[in-house]
Specification:
2 copies of one chain form a homodimer. Chain A is of the alpha/beta class. Chain A has 2 domains: 279 residues, Aldehyde Dehydrogenase, Chain A, domain 1 (3-Layer(aba) Sandwich); 195 residues, Aldehyde Dehydrogenase, Chain A, domain 2 (3-Layer(aba) Sandwich), CATH 3.40.309.10. In chain A, strands 12-13-14-11-10-15-16 form a 7-stranded mixed beta sheet. Chain A has a 5-stranded parallel beta sheet with strand order 7-6-5-8-9, sandwiched between helices. In chain A, strands 3-4-17 form a 3-stranded antiparallel beta sheet, with helices on one face. In chain A, helix 4 runs antiparallel to helix 7. The longest helix of chain A is centred in the N-terminal third of the chain and has 25 residues. Chain A is globular. Chains A and B meet through helix 1, helix 4, strand 3, strand 4 and helix 18 of A and helix 1, helix 4, strand 3, strand 4 and helix 18 of B. Strand 17 of chain A pairs parallel with strand 16 of chain B, so a sheet runs across the interface. Chains A, B: This is Aldehyde dehydrogenase.
Chain lengths: 566, 566
């Protein structure tokens, strides 16, 4: 087909954004081209974007339809998503015969490679731009697959996810352009003529990349791998979580449209929806055509991928046990409010939510006087209760539990120890079938090794442990052990002591964990900002990669050199 | 101890070299700070460097001694190297109790991390500079362990190896300084005060790095991993090949001296020599302390490392089957001379030596008229004979066979097909015990699939196959299959046809192999230049990494962020 999107158009529209992204990953200052406020979209907002009502209408129009993508090898239809808020989505997606789809995805590789790093980056930015214009529509899709509350689904599933995708494109572009396209090489030979070669260097993708999506953050965790692989020259097959297909199906459709309009094969991006119980990720992961895998999910399957998908580069974000060390503070109220929010946001169903609060059993010093272990725990409980006392506000912060396993863990948490804060059921007025629970906080004795099984396992969901430890030193020992053995996406700490601060930093440097110190305001340990914060470190068992750094992109392509005598 | 080498001294001495290396990996023009000519060292040459006689004296002084490194955990002595030229070296190296040595190596990690990327790079450059000053000494050590002829041992084992080490340091420095040391982050909040954070970013090594050395190029293949890991903050344990310990033992001693003088723990670099048959690489490779492994050697052990050393980042250079496609040429004499040299250099014992010469069975067109398959093969044979007709010249080019396995392969090659060029024994006047053999060229029929077992296996040593193929198209199909299934460190091709040239390039881009086109002068397919050429691609089965690119260094460290409310 004729190319409707020319390289020049793409460059005029997106090159300034790419340049700003490149600059920002170097300074790591604040920046985002994707507005966070719902009112920034639609009439009077970003040009061509859907407003709130239009986005809702677009989402509703997809429900109970067949979501055709015109992919090669479609051999049937599959679906079955049920919103954590209650409704069945009723969407059917194409099921692919991978023996047909995978070869078709490779057909466009040579042209995509020949386009070069800049054009690939700009096409990716056009895809992101169209996704951004449909943030309202995607927000509903994320909400009704993940169980996130609308505002979170809007922000984390929209602009923040798009930021992470753009960040990956910027890193990929930077790494691919480190080597020049060509070079003249002339080696002196004393009195003889120099040896002369002309050399060309071409970045070449590795093969088909597989993105294995997760239930809780289908776009936020999916976009980095998708855009890192696509912009480095690889076709990308998106295998969504069976309970969170729609956000990624919408994404794939947009990507295919843009690729075709820019004159490339739309099959460079495809969807692999699976039949119930099919377990297609395991089949795909070991196919020889699959050379890159991005995965977010359980440690068990992440470990399986790392051990078995030996033909591929495997990037995993698995489970960890996140810790907050409470040593001392000069803003006790701020600490309580900040921790309460962190425990509550999306019902603790973030891979970054703190699980273990390590508190010296003899208490801590604060600006409000000394506080005993029991006081700290009950004050945190009270802060959570205060934050979530009103059902409407609570529902808007908690969202819904993503699946019955989380509900079961919340209900069983009381068996693990003394309950300092019981979970309560919250009513969602708009969606009465939503399962909404407030966090439970359980007291555990960190000086007894027979209780460590509980706090040294990930208990995904709104369950936290207030672990009494012998001292801050003991807290640091436990922190080190937890990161080393179980991994951590985040570590938080509160201290007024420079020595303690330094000691916590050393533990995090030694064990490779990202640390937030003394957060008492509107930034929370579970949130990271693209272009500035790293998500995970890639250096402890929770994840083998960080979002986003050079290591996340540099091995998705290879540089092929051709040298000729000059 | 007091630091004798201050950061300021290091910066004054080495920062200009680092800057030039950084610039050159961007332009990929010719550059090296390490002179190739033996006369550039010693009196009147590089200041402080050993001249030819001094280097020989230093080498002789080490023979038949205990090579003490003052390493923790030394529990005995081991040795037994025998030069491929005949003499026993008689050197004994410390054998380490790794349960003592590994913890000792970690002790200096925090200070090495705190030194930061620039100081680490400059310390590495000081190490390289002292190695460079002792190039003559190291040349003898490389010669009498690898069997390389002196001039090759001098150049490839000296300046070229040092170039590859420096290149790795430059890449590592560049990747580590991509993220700033600190950042101020301020996120607007409409009418409210912005959210403000101060952030620090620290590069942190992964843990102890293991370098598993090879017999043929102990320094050239060892330095990239050693310096990439050390400069990214990791202690490095060097496990040399038991037949090629001395070059790396000398390297380790120099590194330890420099580290101590710069105020760091010398145990950041240590040697792990092994007792005969101990197989210590397998033990070390799966120790939890070992987080990075660089390996050059057999495919079998490389595959084992990739499958089993799951706790480590594993960089392997294994075996491949290198091909030259002969389609046509406008410089037939140049082709013959170039190919003859490539087959002969170091008795074909380079991982980059061409093995399969694919020649259309109906012959090729040349500037000297059409040449049949038989003519091309006999002309190559004649060119090799011409090059190696004089024993003294032949010995200086061939070196010695590195081990009895290579000799056995040369002697058995005649069973594989019709011998177009028999191997002949060359006398080495200075070292009568050296085993020196000229290359053997065997004719194989590439149109018969029952003969592909020979040319589709690596036959390491001076054995090449002149494979008759149906056509150039068939040659390209076989080239593709060879790279995909067996891997290739190098591909060469001769053609005067732009279409054929383009088709060969496409195969190499698709299968990720480095291509040299129409080499007829003084550059050979088996040689690469640091800062400009990539060694291997990391994208086919011959190697999972290239020397040197960002992917080779970016995952040897992690960036740990600490953020604080501003």
């Amino acid at each position: 087909m004729a190319a409707a999107l020319t390289p020049q158009q793409l460059s005029e529209t997106h090159r300034p954004t790419l340049d700003q992204a490149l600059e920002t990953i170097g300074t790591r200052a604040y920046w985002s081209p994707h507005p966070e406020h719902p009112k920034a979209y639609g009439e009077g907002g970003a040009p061509g974007s859907l407003g709130a009502a239009e986005g809702k209408t677009a989402f509703d129009a997809v429900l109970n339809t067949r979501f055709d993508l015109d992919q090669p090898g479609t051999d049937g239809w599959t679906g079955g998503e049920v919103s954590p808020y209650g409704p069945e989505l009723g969407v059917e997606y194409p099921h692919a015969d991978i023996d047909v789809l995978l070869p078709a995805m490779k057909a466009g590789t040579a042209a995509w490679r020949a386009a070069g790093p800049e054009t690939r980056a700009l096409v990716c930015l056009e895809i992101l731009s169209r996704i951004s214009a449909r943030t309202h529509e995607l927000a509903h899709a994320v909400m009704h697959t993940s169980g996130q509350a609308f505002m979170m689904a809007f922000q984390a599933g929209g602009p923040h996810a798009q930021d992470r995708g753009l960040e990956a494109v910027a890193y990929a572009y930077q790494e691919q352009t480190r080597t020049p396209g060509s070079a003249d090489w002339s080696k002196p030979q004393g009195k003889r003529d120099p040896l002369k070669l002309t050399k060309t260097f071409t970045t070449s993708g590795r093969g088909i990349a597989l993105v294995i999506g997760c239930n809780t953050f289908p776009t936020w965790n999916g976009y980095p791998g998708l855009f890192a692989s696509l912009s480095t020259g690889n076709p990308v097959l998106v295998k969504p979580h069976p309970r969170a297909v729609l956000p990624l199906a919408l994404t794939v459709r947009i990507a295919r449209e843009v690729l075709a309009e820019a004159g490339f094969d739309p099959n460079l991006v495809a969807l692999a929806a699976e039949r119930p119980g099919e377990g297609i990720a395991k089949t795909l992961a070991v196919r020889p055509e699959i050379r890159i895998i991005d995965y977010t999910g359980s440690t068990a399957f992440g470990d399986w991928l790392e051990a078995n998908a030996r033909q591929a580069q495997v990037y995993t974000e698995k489970a960890g046990v996140n810790t907050i060390v409470v040593d001392s503070t000069d803003d006790y109220r701020g600490l309580l409010a900040n921790v309460a929010f962190s425990l509550s946001l999306y019902s603790g169903q973030m891979c970054t939510t703190p699980q273990n609060l390590l508190i010296p059993r003899d208490g801590i010093t604060t600006d409000a006087g000394p506080k005993s272990y029991d006081e700290v725990v009950s004050d945190i409980a009270a802060a959570v209760n205060g934050l979530l006392g009103d059902d409407a506000r609570a529902a808007a912060l908690l969202g819904a539990l993503v699946n019955p396993d989380v509900k079961a863990r919340v209900e069983a948490a009381g068996e693990l120890g003394e309950v300092a804060l019981p979970s309560r059921t919250v009513a969602n007025a708009e969606f009465p079938d939503a399962v909404v629970r407030t966090p439970v906080v359980v007291k555990l004795d960190g000086t007894k090794t027979d209780e460590d099984a509980a706090y040294l396992s990930e208990c995904f969901g709104p369950v936290s442990f207030a672990v009494a430890v012998e001292s801050t030193d003991a807290a640091l020992e436990l922190l080190r052990r937890t990161i080393r053995e179980k991994g951590a996406m985040t570590v938080g700490a509160y201290t007024t002591s420079p020595e303690v601060e330094r000691a916590i930093e050393d533990v995090c440097l030694d064990e490779s964990a990202q640390l937030s110190l003394n957060l008492t305001g509107g930034v929370y340990v579970n949130q990271t900002a693209a272009f500035s914060d790293f998500h995970g470190s890639g250096g402890n068992p929770a994840a083998n990669a960080a979002l986003c750094d050079a290591a996340f992109v540099a091995n998705r392509f290879r540089v092929v050199e051709v040298r000729r005598q000059a």
